[in-house]
């Protein structure tokens, strides 16, 4: 994992150099943005919505028993914005788009398309990595924001039907507990996750060998490694902003 992380950093530096040279094409970024975030939007929003609904079911009656039902919205909003929405949205995008990125680049590698790019004197790392990383960095935070809104909405609906909590009381609690700093940190998480997902998955795909079997192995490893690195990054960001 350490050697793989070093390879990812090398690829990221090479990608940044490629971008700074002005070789990045806008159309390529837009198509990758649609593949990474827009196509993953339904599953990401559904997961966060359901997760928020489940948590609301679990806590609403407990809060009601202690007379603190008016705090359900605030508690859920903080949990969503700080952790659940960025984490679940990133994992959903990684599972859907990240594995697709790895499989696509792995297939190019085993079919010698990467070698063909090299013969044209084009940097294959920058050519393949840059559009995906830029697209992920700028669109994953948007998915995170939408996921936060859907999660809060899901908690409100469930709280109303579970304990009869009026939406006005729910939203009043949300606004009372909401902190703009938490929102900024969640957007930062989305940005970092948006870089990590394509970087990890593209790197894994780029080091593929062994034909069709190697493509399958790389796709599986990309899913595992992206999940591990996302959780590690989440832990580090949370520690830096909420502990230190």
How does this structure look, described?
With 244 residues, this protein is mostly helical. The protein has one domain. It contains 9 helices and no strands. Helix 3 packs antiparallel against helix 4 and helix 3 runs parallel beside helix 6. The chain is elongated and about 70 Å long. The two termini are 26 Å apart. The mean pLDDT is 88.
* Helix content percent band: over 70%
What count of structural domains?
1
Output the structural class: mainly alpha
Strand fraction:
under 5%
Q: How many strands?
A: 0
Largest sheet: none
Distance between the termini: 26 Å
Shape: elongated
Indicate the low-confidence ranges by residue numbers: none
Return the string of H and E elements: HHHHHHHHH
Number of helices: 9
What is the gyration radius calculated from CA atoms? 20 Å
| Rounded average pLDDT | 88
């Amino acid at each position: 994992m350490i050697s793989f992380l070093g390879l990812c950093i090398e690829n990221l530096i090479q990608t940044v150099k490629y971008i700074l040279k002005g070789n990045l094409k806008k159309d390529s970024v837009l198509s990758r943005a649609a593949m990474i975030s827009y196509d993953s939007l339904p599953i990401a929003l559904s997961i966060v919505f359901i997760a928020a609904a489940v948590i609301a079911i679990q806590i609403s009656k407990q809060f009601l028993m202690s007379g603190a039902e008016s705090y359900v919205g605030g508690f859920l909003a903080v949990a969503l914005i700080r952790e659940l929405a960025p984490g679940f949205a990133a994992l959903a995008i990684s599972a859907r788009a990240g594995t697709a990125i790895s499989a696509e680049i792995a297939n190019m590698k085993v079919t010698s398309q990467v070698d063909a790019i090299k013969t044209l004197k084009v940097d294959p790392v920058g050519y393949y990595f840059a559009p995906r990383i830029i697209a992920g960095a700028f669109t994953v935070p948007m998915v995170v924001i939408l996921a936060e809104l859907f999660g809060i909405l899901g908690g409100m609906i469930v709280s109303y039907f579970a304990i009869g909590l009026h939406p006005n009381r729910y939203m009043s609690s949300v606004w009372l507990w909401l902190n703009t700093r938490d929102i900024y940190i969640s957007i930062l998480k989305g940005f970092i996750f948006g870089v990590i997902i394509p970087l990890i998955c593209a790197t894994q795909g780029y080091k593929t060998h062994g034909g069709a079997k190697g493509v399958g192995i790389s796709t599986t490893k990309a899913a595992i490694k992206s999940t591990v690195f996302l959780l590690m990054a989440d832990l580090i960001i949370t520690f830096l902003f909420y502990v230190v």
